[in-house]
Structure prediction request, 220 residues.
Amino acid sequence: MRIVLLGPPGAGKGTQARRLAERYGVANISTGDILRDHVARGTDLGRLAKDFMDRGDYVPDDVMVRMVMERLQEPDARDGFILDGFPRTVPQAQALEDALAEIGRPLSAVLKFKIDDELAVKRLAGRWTCPACKRTYNAEFKPPRVDRRCDHDQTQLVRRGDDDEVTVRRRLEVYRRETAPLEFFFWERGLLREVDAEGTEDEVTARTIEAIADLVDLSS
Ligand code: AMP
Prediction:
């Protein structure tokens, strides 16, 4: 199973990617998480990416394509993957399509998570993230059991630097300009399914599985 998750920031792609990867036993590849890890470690890539990320802008395509191609060659991605946050531009989508065609393993499905902008802003403005397991919480909609501690591993939760309202609105604008055109790119290939991303995590997971079942034989 090779799946791409599309959708604006705040749509819940990260949460659903983790659930799907666990359920289907495939690699969960989040380009945002990989970049944040590089930033935290102060690598060359991290230093290059940081300013773009802080502003809510995209990291250049050539850098992203190289990073993802390397990641896809790791053994855990061989049996399939959930790509969260890539591709985000038409050149990235084209590069991914070409690379997968070359190895004869095309994408199985592209799921577009649909959410109202104002709800996305609310979700992200109140978001707290576990730096260890990447689970997310929300001060209003999904508070952790113990204040600012991850329910899963008790790590101290953090706010992402790009989750303030001004940067979130910038990220939504960049999404609309750069990433929304990908919907047509994948629709043309018969791969796109839309998922209503409002509601509880369980509700969205159920809708997501239904959308996947429309394109992938899940019976085996
Ligand atoms: P995310 O965690 O997916 O919201 O990504 C956080 C930030 O990382 C984005 O706002 C971009 O600056 C950068 N980023 C992640 N994935 C990509 C990508 N495919 N192309 C360009 N920039 C990306």
